[in-house]
């Protein structure tokens, strides 16, 4: 009398593949959520630029546009640092 093993190697492989498919589906859903968020943020920025009549192509063609953009980035960094400092002072 021959006994059949409790686990079939093919069933174990199928279960492993099912787990991997579930992981990949989860990763795909996360990537879709991140992409949707980025698209929404971009659409909002575009909306306001168009509403204010700002043509980025026209603005960036002007001399000194790169320097102005870098200055704005640095100014934002300073403002963020000051806000962090303010929060830290309030938290103590």
Verbal overview:
This protein has helices at residues 9-51, 56-61, 65-91. Helices cover 83% and strands 0% of the residues. The chain contains 3 helices and no strands. With 92 residues, the protein is an all-alpha fold. The model has no long low-confidence stretch (mean pLDDT 89). The relative contact order is 0.04. The protein is elongated, with a radius of gyration of 27 Å.
Strand content: under 5%
* Overall average pLDDT: 89
Order of helices and strands: HHH
Number of strands: 0
Can you count the helices? 3
Short description:
The protein has helices at residues 9-51, 56-61, 65-91. With 92 residues, it is mostly helical.
Helix and strand arrangement:
Blueprint: H1 9-51, H2 56-61, H3 65-91
